[in-house]
Design brief:
By secondary structure, the protein is mainly alpha-helical. The protein is built from 9 helices and no strands. It has 2 domains: 55 residues, Arc Repressor Mutant, subunit A (Orthogonal Bundle), CATH 1.10.10.60; 143 residues, Tetracycline Repressor, domain 2. α1 packs across α4 and α5 packs across α9. The longest helix is centred in the N-terminal third of the chain and has 29 residues. It is elongated, with a radius of gyration of 19 Å. It starts with a helix and ends with a helix.
């Protein structure tokens, strides 16, 4: 009995993964607005019934994809923390890996950073959640160089927002695959926010 339940669970997860992979491919190629549930199930090789066993609608499927992509990028960022490096080199290494991760999936970047704005309140809430997660990561890992103090929350959020704005600009210019070029500027933004935080408390 247990093996049967486990088998069904594995099949279910496999179907969900195939649906998310299909959504990723279609969104990257055609954009969110131009695809339907029928397109997704055709690409995934499953039935509509299977789709609706996992997702309420196309929007929920795409939001799930965006969350999975954001989680993957954050895992890359967490793995890139190297406390043995000096402060600025830590920034350069971590942000280089993060932006490199995004660049490696640049075909999907437009949907992740731009199409999410067309998904109503749930899309905006997810975007806010992603920014908050990245800001929390900065607070956990970035210390103010001169004092060793914490990175103030609003300044961490501002740094993340500025970096995401630069990423969106690169996407709009068709340069999503060249995101590593903005690593030095992104490091400057984080360093400036941390430095200003120190001055504000002085």
């Amino acid at each position: 009995m247990t093996s049967t339940i486990d088998s069904r669970a594995l099949v279910s997860e496999d179907h969900k993964a195939r649906l998310l992979q299909a959504m990723a491919l279609l969104v990257a190629c055609r954009g969110y607005a131009d695809i339907s549930v029928a397109d997704v199930v055709r690409e995934a090789g499953v039935s509509k019934r299977t789709f609706y066993e996992h997702f309420t609608n196309k929007e929920q499927c795409c939001l799930c994809l965006f969350q999975a992509a954001a989680d993957s990028a954050l895992r890359t960022l967490r793995k890139s923390v190297n406390p043995e490096l000096v402060w600025r080199d830590q920034l350069d290494f971590a942000l280089g890996n993060y932006l490199g991760h995004l660049a490696d999936g640049h075909e999907l970047l437009r949907a992740l950073f731009i199409d999410i704005h067309y998904m109503g309140i749930e899309g905006l809430m997810l975007r806010r959640s992603i920014i908050d997660s990245l800001a929390s990561f900065m607070q956990e890992t970035v210390t103010v160089p001169s004092s060793g103090g914490l990175f103030e929350r609003n300044r961490a959020v501002a740094a993340v927002g500025a970096i995401h704005e630069l990423v969106m600009q690169q996407i709009e210019l068709g340069r999503g695959a060249q995101l590593r070029e903005i690593v030095p500027l992104c490091c400057d933004i984080v360093a400036a926010m941390a430095g200003e935080a120190t001055s504000a408390r002085a």
